[in-house]
TrEMBL record:
Keywords: DNA-binding. One of its GO terms (molecular function) is DNA binding. This is DNA-binding beta-propeller fold protein YncE. It comes from the Bacteria. The lineage of its organism: Bacteria, Bacillati, Actinomycetota, Actinomycetes, Kitasatosporales.
Length: 360
């Protein structure tokens, strides 16, 4: 369903493309960033989750995480990453990282030609981060995170420190990317999405983990739920220094080039319904990353799961995995310009996003 557009928000975007994962497609679809016109789709392996664009080689990396289903409700973990040419809109390679499995979070160090991929643990070792050479597309090594299921991963602008969020483990794993070792554990009550500030001094982490069920103690009793919101992590001390509280659970967190902190808040009906919950329309929450001031909010699709933005910071894109939509948000006036419908063959639907600037 299209909504009224603003010409100024689209100016200069001719040739730019938005890539969108359909988790149950399973596809990666491409949309014209200036007109929202659907340009085509590429079939990929089952259960694609996240996307990462490498501007140096003009390639998209897509992680396929499970054989079917999603975290905690799947039929087994996959081991592949699909490499896509977004200009020709075709698959150019499938990289198998077996015996590593459950690839999900993707973070690129373009200067060093390294792609970092979070992977889940197994009986004989914890989860970790696989380091891939983007030229040869071969794994270079692995960094343990001491948690069973690291899910999202982000690195600082210098490419020296990485952060892995862990759904069940009560900490965020901090790793030294140059030495390839775990250096700290930041105490948080389970975590979801994250982003690192432009100067590398802070990380912003969504917590607690979105389990859709009441927290329970070791004896099975129901305990008090942690305050939902965004934990502000000081990189120097590896500790939480501030909490930006939210009304409901937050999953994705994103920082724009203009210094806006964006978060996707879930809203649920009273009846929890299915494993993913009975989702109401979600909210995009907008803050100043510097002052932590709340700037505003915009209603988006059901179960916001991924956020990205245009390189100039003018537009935000929010995928709703239950509604299988992508909302295009003008961040200057905090208004939805359009809602893209993403084809799917079941639930879940729209997930990973990547903005691909036109070739220069």
């Amino acid at each position: 369903m299209q909504q009224p557009d603003r010409q100024s928000a689209r100016a200069g975007r001719e040739g730019d493309v938005l890539a969108v994962v359909s988790q149950s497609g399973p596809t990666v679809s491409f949309f014209d960033a200036a007109t929202d016109r659907h340009l085509g789709a590429v079939d990929v392996l089952a259960e694609p989750h996240e996307l990462c664009f490498d501007p140096t080689r003009r390639l998209l990396w897509c992680a396929s995480t499970y054989s079917s289903g999603y975290y905690h409700d799947n039929a087994g973990r996959r081991t592949e990453l699909t490499v896509i040419d977004p200009d020709a809109r075709r698959v150019v390679d499938v990289v198998d990282i077996a015996p590593e499995h459950g690839p999900h979070g993707l973070a690129l160090d373009a200067a060093r030609g390294r792609l970092y991929v979070s992977v889940e643990g197994s009986g004989d070792r914890p989860g970790g981060v696989v380091v891939i050479d983007t030229e040869s597309r071969k794994p270079l090594g692995r960094i343990d995170t001491d948690a069973p299921g690291p899910h999202w991963f982000a690195i600082d602008p210098a490419g020296t420190i990485g952060y892995a969020t862990n759904k069940e483990a009560p900490f965020v794993s901090v790793v030294d990317l140059e030495r390839g070792v775990l250096t700290a554990k930041v105490e948080v009550p389970g975590s979801e999405g994250l982003a690192v500030s432009a100067d590398g001094t802070h990380a912003f982490v969504a917590a607690p983990y979105g389990s859709f069920s009441p927290p329970r103690a070791a004896d099975g009793s129901v305990g008090a739920a942690p305050v939902p919101g965004i934990r502000v992590v000081d990189a120097a001390t590896a500790s939480v220094t501030e909490v930006l509280p939210t009304e409901n659970t937050v999953f994705p967190v994103h920082l724009t080039s203009t210094g806006l902190l964006l978060a996707g808040e879930l809203r649920m009906e009273t009846d929890p319904g299915s494993r993913l919950g009975r989702q109401a329309p979600g909210r995009l929450l907008v803050y100043s990353a510097d002052t932590r001031e709340a700037i505003g909010e915009v209603e988006v699709g059901r179960f916001p799961l991924t956020i990205t933005s245009s390189p100039d910071g003018g537009l935000a894109y929010v995928s709703g995995v239950v509604s299988s939509t992508v909302d295009v948000i003008d961040l200057e006036i905090l208004r939805s310009l359009a809602r893209l419908d993403i084809a799917r063959s079941g639930e879940p639907g729209a997930h990973g996003l990547a903005y691909v600037p036109r070739p220069t």
